[in-house]
Amino acid sequence: MKTHILPKLPISALAGIAFASSASGAILVYEGFQYETAAATRAGADLLDGQADDPGVTDTLATGLGGTWTDSAAPSDTGNLFMASGSLSFGDLTTSGNHVRSDTNANNDLFSRSINTSLDGGSELWFSLLANKLQNNFSAAEGGLVIGNQAVNNTRILLDTGNTGLSGFGIAPTTSGNNWTAYAWNGSSQTVGDANLGVATNGTETNLLVGKVSYNTGAGGTDEYSIYQYVLNAGSVTGGSLNQIGSTIEIDVTEGDLDTLSLTRQVNTAYDEIRIGESLDDVLGIPEPSTTALLGLGGLALILRRRK
User: Class of the 27-287 domain?
Assistant: First the structure.
């Protein structure tokens, strides 16, 4: 047949796909630490300090990040996080490449990198992080992740009380170091979560930690911030559940100022798969059903067009 409606579908299908992607949210920031060269130990591996996207080699482009990872905590040859071979694993969570870790607790690391995409486009902000506590042999181990308007000013996140202007959201252990809890800052003060998730400190337990920010839904228009441990569904991320860690924090943060990602280490910890998005599915790497269906329709339409 020479004439039928299907040849016109690819354009409309592609438009539908674009609409579905923008309407349902998307991954805003992704860092899978796919840099070369990786190794099982620090010897022979590249350090995280100074790493940037390098599409000319074998690195996988990080999404939504600019510049390079910079360590402002007096980096040394025995203290830096390094590129470790393989990804941390958590059920069937999609991962890429390598992860970062330290094989000594002799030094501190305070890494930061700029976020070059807006984080205030939706009503919610979600993030996730794979973390494994490899060791804990002393107190004062509050190293973790912060999304803020500037870099956190101490490798021990608890010690940044907000008096230097930090505004944002974080997750890190408390002083004992064998747990995870929520931290938040409003530009002048700090709020610490009222409960924590206890974890093993011998490298046997990888946790998928999830944070959720609901913009302007708290009392007086404050933001509501909560953190969770993600629980798999029979080994699958799809259909899993969220185990909230402590109470929801209400704090006033200017979301348009969130432009810096901090990653700190006090004792041995491994990190991987940092995701920031506008929905839970975004930070679990789960495609929206509507987007998947439209991609299929678009592909079918293209096939039919070629057959005309």
Answer: mainly beta
